[in-house]
Design a protein that fits this description.
This protein is about 65% helix and about 5% strand. A hairpin with a 7-residue loop joins strand 1 and strand 2. It contains 4 helices and 2 strands, in the order ααββαα. The protein is mainly alpha-helical. It has a two-stranded antiparallel ribbon. The longest helix has about 35 residues. The chain folds into 3 domains: about 60 residues; about 50 residues; about 30 residues, no CATH class. The chain is flat, with a radius of gyration of 36 Å.
């Protein structure tokens, strides 16, 4: 025998069923979202991009920048700065680190050049796919066969399979 539920218990049971259905819908919607090809491609792209960023950062910071420093006599732009004193508050000074900005701009151009050449090198290894010849339409083949038959020509005369007569 079932126990009769009180009004508050029935309300609570109804609310929990409704919440369960909503949760099920949200889980199903999330599954649909995550299983889309675009989301997976994007995730792979981000992961590979992060790894690629580490490679480029190391190349620029550990190989190219020291070589440039060697060529320009070891000048470090990041140390360049100017101290500006406020005309209204003489005790207040601000340091404008324009050298860090110049270093960031220089790093950006070096990274851009490195990425350009790395992509160019990777494109060499990428296989070029030759486009497939379009498959002739069945209807068109039948029409051509009918035309040839009407002209009195067989497919064997054209180099194809013989036609039943």
């Amino acid at each position: 025998m079932k126990k009769k539920l009180s009004k508050s218990e029935r309300t609570l049971l109804k609310a929990s069923r409704k919440a369960s259905r909503k949760a099920g819908k949200i889980v199903a919607e999330f599954k649909e979202f995550i299983s889309r090809g675009n989301v997976t491609d994007m995730a792979v792209g981000i992961i590979v991009g992060t790894a690629f960023t580490a490679i480029v950062t190391s190349l620029v910071g550990d190989v190219i920048t020291p070589l440039i420093g060697l060529l320009i006599g070891g000048i470090d732009f990041s140390q360049l700065s100017v101290k500006v004193t406020s005309p209204w508050f003489p005790d207040y000074t601000v340091t404008l680190a324009y050298g860090k900005f110049l270093q960031s701009v220089l790093s950006f151009f070096i990274i851009a050049i490195c990425v350009f050449f790395m992509v160019k090198a990777l494109n060499i290894f990428k296989r070029k796919k030759e486009p497939e010849a379009p498959k002739p339409d069945e209807k068109l083949l039948v029409l051509k066969e009918i035309r040839d038959l009407l002209k009195g020509e067989t497919q064997s005369e054209r180099g194809g399979l013989p036609v039943k007569k």
